[in-house]
Specification:
- It is a single chain.
- By secondary structure, the chain is an alpha/beta fold.
- It folds into 2 domains: 96 residues, Rossmann fold, CATH 3.40.50; 35 residues.
- The protein is 33% helix and 21% strand.
- The protein has 4 helices and 7 strands.
- The strands form 2 sheets. The chain has a 5-stranded parallel β-sheet, with helices on both faces.
- Helix 3 links the parallel strand 4 and strand 5.
- The longest helix has 17 residues.
- The radius of gyration is 16 Å and the shape is globular.
Protein backbone atom coordinates (compact mmCIF):
# COMPACT_ATOMS: atom_id res chain seq x y z
CA UNK A 1 0.00 0.00 0.00
CA UNK A 2 1.37 3.39 -0.95
CA UNK A 3 1.75 6.56 1.01
CA UNK A 4 -1.22 8.89 0.78
CA UNK A 5 -0.76 12.60 0.08
CA UNK A 6 -2.97 14.88 2.20
CA UNK A 7 -4.99 16.93 -0.25
CA UNK A 8 -8.03 19.16 0.14
CA UNK A 9 -10.60 19.04 -2.66
CA UNK A 10 -13.39 21.51 -3.39
CA UNK A 11 -16.48 19.29 -3.23
CA UNK A 12 -18.98 22.11 -3.75
CA UNK A 13 -21.48 20.77 -6.30
CA UNK A 14 -19.44 17.65 -7.08
CA UNK A 15 -21.48 14.51 -7.73
CA UNK A 16 -20.70 11.76 -5.23
CA UNK A 17 -22.30 8.32 -5.56
CA UNK A 18 -22.60 6.36 -2.30
CA UNK A 19 -23.48 2.67 -2.26
CA UNK A 20 -24.75 1.46 1.11
CA UNK A 21 -27.32 2.71 3.57
CA UNK A 22 -25.91 1.86 6.99
CA UNK A 23 -23.85 3.53 9.72
CA UNK A 24 -20.61 3.86 7.76
CA UNK A 25 -22.39 5.28 4.72
CA UNK A 26 -24.24 7.74 6.97
CA UNK A 27 -20.98 9.01 8.51
CA UNK A 28 -19.40 9.44 5.09
CA UNK A 29 -22.49 11.18 3.70
CA UNK A 30 -22.66 13.59 6.66
CA UNK A 31 -19.04 14.62 6.06
CA UNK A 32 -19.58 15.06 2.32
CA UNK A 33 -22.70 17.19 2.86
CA UNK A 34 -20.81 19.48 5.23
CA UNK A 35 -18.49 20.35 2.36
CA UNK A 36 -21.19 20.94 -0.28
CA UNK A 37 -21.12 17.71 -2.30
CA UNK A 38 -24.17 16.59 -4.28
CA UNK A 39 -24.67 13.13 -2.79
CA UNK A 40 -26.79 10.31 -4.20
CA UNK A 41 -27.18 7.16 -2.09
CA UNK A 42 -28.22 3.83 -3.59
CA UNK A 43 -29.02 1.00 -1.17
CA UNK A 44 -31.76 -1.59 -0.73
CA UNK A 45 -32.13 -0.48 2.90
CA UNK A 46 -31.61 3.08 4.16
CA UNK A 47 -30.93 3.89 7.82
CA UNK A 48 -32.98 6.36 9.83
CA UNK A 49 -29.85 8.52 10.11
CA UNK A 50 -29.63 8.85 6.31
CA UNK A 51 -33.35 9.53 6.05
CA UNK A 52 -32.94 12.31 8.62
CA UNK A 53 -30.02 13.80 6.70
CA UNK A 54 -32.10 13.72 3.50
CA UNK A 55 -34.90 15.67 5.19
CA UNK A 56 -32.41 18.39 6.17
CA UNK A 57 -30.21 18.53 3.06
CA UNK A 58 -31.29 19.54 -0.41
CA UNK A 59 -28.07 18.12 -1.83
CA UNK A 60 -28.82 14.51 -0.76
CA UNK A 61 -31.01 12.05 -2.63
CA UNK A 62 -31.81 8.49 -1.59
CA UNK A 63 -32.73 5.60 -3.87
CA UNK A 64 -33.89 2.30 -2.35
CA UNK A 65 -32.60 -0.41 -4.66
CA UNK A 66 -29.52 -2.56 -5.18
CA UNK A 67 -26.43 -1.45 -7.11
CA UNK A 68 -26.60 -1.93 -10.87
CA UNK A 69 -23.73 -1.68 -13.36
CA UNK A 70 -23.82 1.81 -14.87
CA UNK A 71 -24.79 3.51 -11.59
CA UNK A 72 -21.59 5.57 -11.71
CA UNK A 73 -22.77 7.65 -14.67
CA UNK A 74 -21.78 11.27 -14.01
CA UNK A 75 -20.19 10.44 -10.62
CA UNK A 76 -17.00 12.32 -9.80
CA UNK A 77 -16.32 10.36 -6.61
CA UNK A 78 -17.69 7.07 -5.25
CA UNK A 79 -18.07 5.37 -1.89
CA UNK A 80 -18.67 1.62 -1.56
CA UNK A 81 -19.96 1.09 1.98
CA UNK A 82 -22.29 -1.89 1.67
CA UNK A 83 -22.26 -5.00 3.85
CA UNK A 84 -21.83 -7.12 0.70
CA UNK A 85 -18.21 -7.63 -0.40
CA UNK A 86 -19.38 -8.72 -3.86
CA UNK A 87 -21.21 -5.43 -4.40
CA UNK A 88 -18.26 -3.44 -3.03
CA UNK A 89 -15.99 -5.27 -5.51
CA UNK A 90 -18.33 -4.56 -8.43
CA UNK A 91 -18.39 -0.86 -7.50
CA UNK A 92 -14.59 -0.86 -7.19
CA UNK A 93 -14.06 -2.41 -10.63
CA UNK A 94 -16.59 -0.12 -12.29
CA UNK A 95 -14.76 2.84 -10.74
CA UNK A 96 -11.46 1.51 -12.13
CA UNK A 97 -12.97 1.25 -15.64
CA UNK A 98 -14.60 4.69 -15.48
CA UNK A 99 -11.68 6.49 -13.80
CA UNK A 100 -13.76 7.48 -10.77
CA UNK A 101 -11.84 7.75 -7.46
CA UNK A 102 -13.35 5.34 -4.93
CA UNK A 103 -13.32 4.65 -1.21
CA UNK A 104 -14.16 1.03 -0.38
CA UNK A 105 -14.98 1.20 3.31
CA UNK A 106 -14.27 -2.49 3.94
CA UNK A 107 -10.91 -2.70 2.11
CA UNK A 108 -8.22 -0.05 2.53
CA UNK A 109 -6.20 -1.64 -0.30
CA UNK A 110 -8.98 -0.63 -2.71
CA UNK A 111 -9.19 2.99 -1.53
CA UNK A 112 -8.00 5.84 -3.72
CA UNK A 113 -8.62 8.12 -0.74
CA UNK A 114 -9.49 7.93 2.94
CA UNK A 115 -12.01 9.85 5.00
CA UNK A 116 -9.98 11.69 7.60
CA UNK A 117 -11.01 12.68 11.07
CA UNK A 118 -12.08 16.30 10.55
CA UNK A 119 -11.37 19.15 12.94
CA UNK A 120 -12.91 22.42 11.71
CA UNK A 121 -13.07 25.82 13.38
CA UNK A 122 -13.72 28.94 11.33
CA UNK A 123 -11.41 29.00 8.33
CA UNK A 124 -9.15 26.26 9.71
CA UNK A 125 -9.77 22.68 8.60
CA UNK A 126 -7.52 19.81 9.64
CA UNK A 127 -7.80 16.26 8.30
CA UNK A 128 -6.27 13.40 10.30
CA UNK A 129 -5.64 9.85 9.11
CA UNK A 130 -3.53 6.94 10.24
CA UNK A 131 -3.35 5.61 6.69
CA UNK A 132 -6.34 3.35 7.21
CA UNK A 133 -4.43 1.35 9.84
CA UNK A 134 -5.61 2.61 13.23
CA UNK A 135 -8.94 4.43 13.35
CA UNK A 136 -8.77 4.80 17.14
CA UNK A 137 -5.42 6.60 16.94
CA UNK A 138 -6.75 8.94 14.25
CA UNK A 139 -9.91 9.63 16.30
CA UNK A 140 -7.84 10.45 19.39
CA UNK A 141 -5.57 12.79 17.44
CA UNK A 142 -8.61 14.47 15.85
CA UNK A 143 -10.19 15.04 19.28
CA UNK A 144 -6.98 16.68 20.56
CA UNK A 145 -6.78 18.92 17.49
CA UNK A 146 -10.43 19.94 17.94
CA UNK A 147 -9.61 20.97 21.51
CA UNK A 148 -6.66 23.02 20.26
CA UNK A 149 -8.71 24.73 17.55
CA UNK A 150 -11.57 25.52 19.91
CA UNK A 151 -9.32 27.84 21.94
CA UNK A 152 -7.85 29.53 18.83
CA UNK A 153 -4.53 30.31 20.58
CA UNK A 154 -3.11 31.90 17.42
CA UNK A 155 -5.80 34.59 17.30
CA UNK A 156 -5.48 37.63 19.49
Amino acid sequence: MGTYFPIFINLEGKKVQVFGGGKIAARRVAALLEFGAEVHVIAPEISGKLEGLARQAENLTLERRPYLPGDLAAAELAIAATNDEGVNDMVYWECRREGVPVNVASDKEKCDFFFPGIAKEGDITVGVTAGGKDHRKAAQATAKIRELLKGRPWEG
